[in-house]
């Protein structure tokens, strides 16, 4: 059995603010070690359950956070930034299932460090479906016929996962109090929970269905301000909707929509506020 694991950082136990997830800040090294330990809890349990091939994709910020020297030695790791498919780089139809570890709620929703790709995004839609990173990544997995078997993060990420993917298993490692405050399990307790839920998710895999994306999807991104929308709309094929900060792109398939989203959000980050 071949398993794909995408590991973000904001949904890891004990990590609640910028100091834990920004490589320039004082708590970051602690954060990346806990992130690596949580990934290992899932990886080890999956191998013990009979998985034979596990690919891990570092999916936070510059995407070079996981400490490869501490990962399970039989794991393959995709690390480094500027990936064509970002958080789902390397995912294809050869996988039996996907795990989203350390995930968070989408922008404009309650949840620890909630956002969607960048802090300039207010909402993202595929047709009429509101999505964040979790939803968009699940749609890409669904394009390949791969079900998302488990999502870990805070309680708000779990709510989002259950709304998107019937029968998905969740591992709630912390409960959001505010966007930067949580009641968290200790890393050891979180690792134990992740291991148990990994085994449960793998035994449950036959009843979890892939999240199938629409054909010719319409991507719409609502930005926080007009300057960000203007920058995003410099990408060919986009339309800035009148009297709004929403940019539209009509895609051939979800893969094109995903790459368009990456380009649009990166362009929007060029906006300055002075």
Automatic annotation (TrEMBL):
Coiled coil start-end: none
Molecular-function GO terms, alphabetical: aminopeptidase activity; metal ion binding
Name of the featured protein: D-aminopeptidase
Binding locations of Zn(2+) 2: 8, 60, 104, 133
Positions that bind Zn(2+) 1: 8, 10
Metal-binding listed as a keyword: yes
Key words of the record: Aminopeptidase, Hydrolase, Metal-binding, Protease, Zinc
Active-site residues per Swiss-Prot or TrEMBL entry: 115
Classification via InterPro entries: DppA_N, Peptidase_M55, Peptidase_M55_sf
């Amino acid at each position: 059995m071949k398993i794909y694991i995408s590991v973000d950082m904001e949904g890891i136990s004990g990590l609640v603010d910028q100091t834990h997830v920004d490589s320039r800040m004082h708590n970051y090294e602690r954060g990346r070690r806990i992130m690596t330990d949580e990934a290992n809890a899932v990886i080890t349990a999956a191998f013990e359950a009979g998985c034979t091939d596990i690919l891990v994709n570092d999916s936070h910020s510059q995407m070079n956070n996981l400490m490869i020297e501490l990962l399970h030695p039989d794991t393959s790791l995709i690390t480094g930034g500027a990936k064509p498919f970002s958080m789902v780089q390397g995912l294809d139809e050869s996988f039996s299932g996907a795990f989203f570890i350390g995930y968070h709620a989408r922008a404009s929703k309650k949840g620890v460090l909630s956002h969607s790709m960048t802090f300039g995004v207010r909402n993202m839609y595929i047709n009429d479906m509101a999505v964040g990173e979790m939803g968009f990544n699940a749609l890409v997995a669904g394009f390949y016929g791969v079900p998302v078997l488990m999502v870990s993060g805070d309680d708000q990420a779990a709510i989002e996962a259950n709304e998107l993917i019937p029968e998905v298993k969740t591992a709630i490692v912390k409960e959001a109090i505010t966007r930067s405050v949580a009641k968290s399990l200790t890393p050891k307790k979180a690792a134990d929970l992740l291991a148990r839920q990994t085994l449960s998710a793998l035994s449950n895999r036959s009843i979890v269905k892939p999240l199938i994306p629409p054909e010719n999807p319409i991507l719409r991104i609502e930005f926080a301000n007009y300057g960000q929308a203007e920058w995003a709309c410099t990408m060919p094929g986009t339309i800035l909707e009148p009297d709004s900060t929403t940019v539209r792109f009509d895609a051939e398939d979800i893969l094109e929509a995903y790459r368009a989203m990456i380009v649009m959000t990166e362009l929007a980050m060029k906006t300055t506020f002075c």
